[in-house]
Amino acid sequence: MQGNVTDSVTSIATIAEETAALFEEVMRRKVMKLNIKEFADKGIVSLGNMYRIAKVMKKAAAGEDITVGMIGGSITRGSLATAPKLCYAYLVYQWWVEKFCDSHISYVNAGVGGTTSQFGVARVDNDLLDFDPDFVITEFGVNDREEELFKETYEGLIRKILMHKTEPALLILNNVRYNNGLNAQSIHNAVGLEYNLAMINIKDSLYAEIEAGRIPSANITTDFLHPNDLGHKIVAQIVINALEKIYDEVFCGTIPNIYRMPIRTITKNRFMNSVRYNNKNTATNSKGFIADLTKQDSIQDKFRNGWKAGKVGDTIRFVFTGGIISAQYCKTIRNDAPIAKAVIDGEEENAILIDANLSNTRGDSLAIQDLLVEDESKIHTLDITIVKVAEESEIDFYLASILVAN
Fold first, then answer.
1. Are residues 323 and 381 in the same domain?
2. Which residues of the chain have pLDDT under 50?
3. Which of 65, 117, 345, 403 is most buried as measured by Cβ atoms within 10 A of its Cβ?
């Protein structure tokens, strides 16, 4: 009798799984039958001044080599896509390849998970601009917040890209959190409008369909943040829809004969010349902090080229010229990581604690903590010292880099 009960339970479980799988497939097909163009158009905030992108498209159409680059967070990197070639960034690149088949088109994906435009502006030279891109997508919509700080860091990133010697065309993409619709599109688009750039909002297109009940969120994301393969495909098609419109204007319409970048900025623009200092490009005076010389596999291998320490009293000193100084460090979910303090110019009374313990369970993150924010740039000393270590803890405090701006 027991065997029959077990078989019956197994049968019910199997039927439930098969029913769920069938429902998911039905809904997936329903999503794929949607006319994406209908809601893709709603995501276009502006096509911007098309002079630069026209130059890129005409260059590719003439059979010349071009480079397509992306910089952003984990969505750009391709998180939850089952293969790198299934993420939105690669699918958009593939559009260029298929559209301009006589051109050799290179692809640079500078997406790094869990990072904001504050880090983006400090790393864009090494991770993207050194490859001399002709066309760039920036995507920090779900990592930046609607705060003046990120409006300023984002403007710094935009200006730095636009001022690169290749004069790249630039498109702003704002992804969205699918559980609550939050993103930073208001501050990003304020910058984009001032610089007359192409801008696309996923909140006003794909997410609007989810809110209206026409697309189940479970079909395009499992964590309500990162798109799955289908989600990446839809995001890519929304971007491609805008590129197709630009293409039609470039080859069949009228485009501007010049692009003028604004001379004045809409923020203080203190971050445009941000520099990331690590053990590869800066000297230190340290006691107990050891340089991490492990080879970095790629830019996604985030916790490399820094310094680590694990004993109370371990200290490291830097000397920088700047007005904004930030510590970039590993924040871990292990919850027994050391705690450090940062002291600027020997002012112990203004010491700032740097707690490397993380309360959520998503995974270790590359955190940024601002230590000094001033308008005036001058020489400063920075001392970081370990002040607390949990008993029997084997975790080191990992200082990945120091970001210096202005």
1. yes
2. 1-3, 5-6, 9, 19-20, 22-23, 26
3. 117
Predicted model pTM: 0.91
**Phi first, then psi: what are they for 233, rounded to 5°?**
-65, -40
Domain boundary among 185, 219, 252: 252
Asked if residues 78 and 107 have their Cβ atoms less than 8 Å apart, the reply is no
Structural domain count of the chain: 2
- In this structure, which amino acid lies at residue 21? A
Token look-up 């559980």 returns: 179
> How confident is the model at residue 335, as a pLDDT?
79
Read off the CATH number of the domain in which 311 is found.
2.60.120.260
Q: Which residues contact 330 (CB under 8 A, 6 or more apart)?
A: 303, 337, 356, 364, 365, 366, 367, 397, 398, 400
pLDDT digit string, tens, across residues 267-276: 999 999 999 9
Which backbone phi and psi does 326 adopt, to 5 degrees? -135, 140
Orientation angle between helical segments 117-127 and 148-162, nearest 10 degrees: 20
pLDDT for position 257: 95
For residue 252, the surrounding DSSP H or E stretch is helix 229-252
- Both tokens of 23, joined, read 């429902």
Note the pLDDT of residue 359.
79
In this prediction, residue 35 carries a pLDDT of 80
Where helices occur in 50-147 by DSSP H, the ranges are 51-61, 74-77, 88-99, 117-127
Beta-bridge partners for 373: 324
For residue 259, tell me if it sits in a domain: no
Determine if residue 346 is left, alpha or beta; phi over 0 gives left, psi from -120 to 50 gives alpha, anything else beta. Answer: left
Residue 6 has what pLDDT? 46
Exposure of 8 by Cβ count < 10 A (0-12 exposed, 13-18 middle, 19+ buried)? exposed
Structure tokens, 339: 């705690």
Question: What's the CA gap between 126 and 363, in Å, rounded?
Answer: 26
Q: Does 19 fall in a domain?
A: no
Residue 21 lies in a domain: no
How far apart are the C-alpha atoms of 120 and 127, rounded to whole Å?
Answer: 9
**Each residue's pLDDT tens digit, 188-210:** 999 999 999 999 999 999 999 99
The predicted pLDDT at position 242 comes to 98
